[in-house]
Design brief:
The protein is an alpha/beta fold. Helices cover 16% and strands 27% of the residues. Helix 1 packs antiparallel against helix 3.
Length: 310
């Protein structure tokens, strides 16, 4: 689903100003939301003590660089991908149709909304310590489809011709699950043994979100009832007249698609020098932003030219 983002939206998100800070320190069992509305964060020092949870801001793409990183045991980095909303149920018609009138079909259930795609995350870290880290970037669950509404029953006063009951409303389609986030881990450390263990110490959960459940179609309403009429015949003075048929039942909604799992990639390198620092990267980030702004302007000019040509 993230492939539906236009080139323009992608460039706009990348141009956002980087947030630079000296350090970020979460105490044991502390939970904190990463502050700032940015797609890039740069820290001199990042310390997440045992049981700490860092909640990521709701960005499509996120890059976190840190020159010195110390991770305790049972630490979590968690993205937030919202579930899709449930579709409303179709209108149910509880009152019978007007005398001998044609019954109305029940309303269709609305489709469930798709779950949100998880954040794509890149970490550029120089590790000093690594206990255990869980990265949670699951896609949001799709919303359930709404149920179809009951159709209108035919008038049952016994004086009508055969009238079929109103059809039941169809169920709404289930919402698709959101895609899991892609994770790129660029890790360096002075200790080669630490780098060899990172794949065992870092667990990534970037499964796609579950699809919602489709809405159920409603049963058709009853038609006019059968009745006797006065008519002389060989069998007597009354003749049975069959009633109208029951209305068609509404179809169940279509199932949704489970979100695609994100990709995970490790890149490790032994080095004595911290990979990044706020002082050394500010000029690089500024140049990157200027380059992206130039690309964005060029893309806007091309879009305007295409619109004028149509």
């Amino acid at each position: 689903m993230r492939h539906g983002f236009s080139f323009l939206v992608l460039l706009t998100s990348l141009v956002s100003t980087a947030v630079s800070a000296a350090d970020l320190h979460l105490k044991a069992n502390e939970t904190r939301v990463l502050e700032g509305n940015s797609s890039s964060y740069v820290f001199d020092s990042l310390i997440l003590e045992d049981g700490a949870t860092l909640i990521l801001p709701p960005q499509p793409f996120l890059h976190i660089s840190a020159a010195q990183v110390s991770i305790g045991t049972g630490v979590t980095i968690q993205g937030v991908a919202k579930s899709g909303g449930r579709g409303a149920n179709g209108e149910a018609l509880s009152e019978a149709a007007a005398s001998c009138g044609k019954p109305v079909a029940g309303g269709s259930g609305e489709d469930g909304l798709p779950g949100q795609d998880a954040t794509d995350l890149t970490l550029d870290w120089h590790l000093l310590k690594l206990g255990s880290l869980n990265i949670e970037l699951e896609g949001g669950a799709g919303g359930d489809g709404g149920h179809g509404g009951a159709g209108q029953a035919a008038d049952d006063n016994g004086n009508c011709e055969r009238i079929r009951g109103g059809a039941g409303g169809r169920g709404g389609q289930a919402g698709d699950g959101g895609d899991g986030g892609d994770v790129q881990l660029n890790l360096s450390a002075k200790n080669p043994a630490l780098l060899q263990a990172v794949r065992d110490l870092i667990r990534v959960n970037n499964d796609g979100g579950a699809a919602g459940s489709p809405g159920s179609g409603a049963k058709g309403a009853e038609g006019t009832p059968g009745h006797y009429i006065n008519r002389k015949s060989l069998s007597g003075n009354k003749t049975w007249v069959a009633g109208g048929k029951q209305g068609d039942s509404g179809a169940d909604g279509e199932p949704g698609r489970e979100g695609a799992s994100g990709r995970t990639a490790f890149s490790v390198a032994a080095t004595k020098t911290p990979a990044v620092s706020t002082a050394s990267t500010e000029s690089t980030l500024e140049a990157r932003v200027q380059s992206l702004e130039s690309q964005l302007k060029e893309a806007l000019h091309r879009i305007e030219a295409l619109e004028q040509a149509q």
